[in-house]
Each structure stands twice: as C-alpha cells, then as structure tokens.
Design goal:
single chain; alpha/beta; Spore Coat Polysaccharide Biosynthesis Protein SpsA, Chain A; UDP N-Acetylglucosamine Acyltransferase, domain 1; 23-stranded parallel beta sheet; 32 strands; 13% helix; GlmU_C_LbH
Length: 365
C-alpha cells in the first residue's frame, strides 16, 4: 500500500519486500488496452537479451506529457520526464509508456539511489535506468494500447473504444446490430448468428443468446441464458433462463430465478420472480407471478397476481397443466390450482382447486 503519493518510484519502493531474484513486470493500472501479445513480446525480448530491464516505448506525433527516451552513444538509456526536459529533449517523439520488465534484484538495488530532486519533488521510477547495467527498448506500433486514463472524460472515451471492439466482434460473427452507438454489450456476452439487436439495448454479465433472436429496442438483459428464436422487446431480464421460441414484452420484467420453457408468451407489464412457466403457456397482460410453477398450456388472465408474501415468508403457487385463470384473479399462496381447472374472473382464491373444477369467489352483483 502506497499511503502517500510520492511518485512511481516510491510506489515500487512500497512493494520492495516482494522484489527478489525473479524478473518482474511492472504495469500501470490506468492503461486498459495493453495486449497479451505486446507484453509477451516484451518479456521474450527481455529474457533473450538478458537485460537488466526492457522498456516498452512508442512514437507519438504529439509526445506532450510523456517521458522522453534518450539513447546515448554508449547504448545506455535515460528517460527524462516532460517537466524536466529541455527544449531539444522535448523534440524527441519516442516516449516511455511506463511499462517495463526488470531483474528484481537489480531493480531493488537501483531504487536506493533515486531521489526526489526534480520539478515534481517525487521519486521517479524512470530514474532507476541510470543505475541498471543493460537496458533494452521494445518499440510498440499501436499507440492505442498505451492510452492512459486520467479523468472521467478519458474513462468514457476508453470505454467507448472497448465497446466498439466488442460490437465489431459480434457483427463479424453474423449478429446484426442496428445502431452501435446506442448498444452496450459487455465482454463476456455470447450471441448466435442472425440475431438482431435493436437500438438502445444493454446486454451485460455472462449472458448467452442463441441464433435468430430479436432483442430490443429499449431492452436490458443481465446474466441470462436465452435460446434460439426468442423475441424480447422493451423489457428487463435478469438471472433468467429462456428457451426456444419465447416472446417477451413489451414492458415485461423477468427477475431472478425465472424459467420460461418453449413457446411461452409473456406480455406487457408482466413481472416474474422465481417462476417456472412451462411450454405453450402465456401471461399476456398486467400480471405478477412470484414463487410460482405454471404447467403446460395454461392461460393467465390479465391482472392476475400470485400473493406470495404473507408478511413473514414467501409461499408458493402451483398451477397445473391446462388451467385457465380468469382476469383480475388473486391466488393467495400457498395454493394449488388443479389440471384443466377454470378460475372465474375477479376471484380471490385461498384454497386448493381440484382438477377439472370451476372455482368462483365473488359476491353477488
């Protein structure tokens, strides 16, 4: 832990007890684009040339703000920080990226020689190169890899670059993304070919989406497993599993533990939580299904709610195959609705309904 920010050299001094006779790679935490290939190339050159240190450089048209790499005739290398550079040194375009490999013991010894005698009054890690036996340089071709982030503006710019790379990957794999500028997909998401992603869609976490799906617009998905030919419009889905040929939305909300089997339809203003809905069943309007099992070929009428919370604990509702739940029904859990039964509209059901039965719970008009 670096309790005081006294420069990059001081930061490494704070970790001095970890330095030994092994080689050590030191990176900056605000440089997110650096690639495995580049780091591997740097390490390989370091080991091959048996250097005390091997640094990563890059040539910039505008090197302002970066430490300049000074290569002397005796092949020694010196790095001069921007604030300490003279006029001629500032003309040098090859700059130090801050990334380097070191022989641990030599670095540890060199750290004892550096001082804060500079414009910043800090311990520069770059000063150690004057005290190392042999310093090599690997020049990087793609300057994008070493873009640093110093404020929220640069953070947003970096995020946009990464997002565009993710979107390109999906589009090259056969996914149609209608408006990349308004589409956000995180790195771990997998999407099958011929799926269409409409504008203003956000897909996060370890989500997998099959082929021939239509997602969006105005949709947010997180940590879901979605199979082929699923349509989700203007909806939110989280920690849910959705099988083939399911239709969701608009304005649906699938919460954690939802499982929708094949050919299920979930419509506008329907919310589910820890609900398993079996093949060919549908809840098309204004419904809440919490802690609920719904069998096959069930119709859930508009305005139906499962009353799963009694003030102390959550209770389960079981609706068997072929049941028909009339509009505006309240199912007070725990309760079981039998096979092929029919619950009249406007009912409050507090007791189990047998198979093939008609259940009504209304006062006389």
């Amino acid at each position: 832990e670096q309790k005081e920010r006294l420069g990059t050299g001081h930061a490494v001094i704070c970790a001095e007890k970890f330095l030994d006779d092994n080689d050590i790679l030191i990176l900056y935490g605000d440089v997110p684009f650096i690639s495995y290939h580049t780091l591997n190339t740097l390490i390989e050159r370091h080991l091959k040339d048996n250097n005390s240190s091997t640094i990563l450089s890059v040539r910039l048209e505008d090197p302002t703000g970066y430490g300049r790499i000074i290569k002397n005739e005796d092949k020694s290398v010196k790095i001069v920080e921007e604030k300490d550079a003279d006029t001629s040194e500032k003309q040098i375009k090859e700059v130090y990226t801050g990334i380097a490999v070191y022989k641990g013991e030599q670095l540890k010894e060199a750290l004892h020689y550096i001082t804060p005698q500079n414009a910043q009054g800090e311990y520069y890690l770059t000063d150690v190169f004057e005290y190392l036996e042999k310093v090599g340089v690997v020049e990087l071709e793609n300057e994008t890899e070493v873009i640093g982030i110093n404020d929220r503006i640069q953070l947003a710019q970096a995020e946009k670059k990464i997002r565009n790379e993710i979107l390109k990957k999906h589009m090259l794999n056969g996914v149609t993304i209608q408006d990349p500028d308004s589409t956000y997909i995180s790195a771990d998401v997998s999407i099958g070919p011929d799926t269409i992603i409409y504008p203003h869609t956000f897909i996060y976490g370890k989500t997998t989406i099959g082929k021939d799906c239509e997602i969006g617009p105005l949709t947010r998905i997180k940590d879901c497993i979605i199979e082929d030919n699923v349509k989700i419009i203007r909806s939110e889905c989280e920690l849910s599993r959705i099988q083939k040929n399911v239709s969701i939305g608009p304005f649906s909300r699938l919460r954690e533990g939802t499982e929708l089997q094949e050919n299920v339809k979930i419509g506008n203003f329907v919310e589910t939580k820890k609900a398993k809905i079996s093949c060919n069943s549908k809840a098309q309007h204004l419904t809440y299904l919490g802690d609920t099992y719904v069998g096959r070929n069930v119709n859930i009428g508009a305005g139906t709610i499962t009353c799963n919370y009694d003030g102390k604990k959550k209770n389960k509702t079981f609706i068997d195959d072929g049941a028909f739940i009339g509009s505006n029904t309240s199912l007070v859990a725990p309760v079981n609705i039998g096979k092929n039964s029919l619950v009249g509209a406007g009912s409050v059901i507090t007791k189990d309904v047998p198979d093939n039965a008609l259940a009504l719970a209304r006062a006389h008009q």
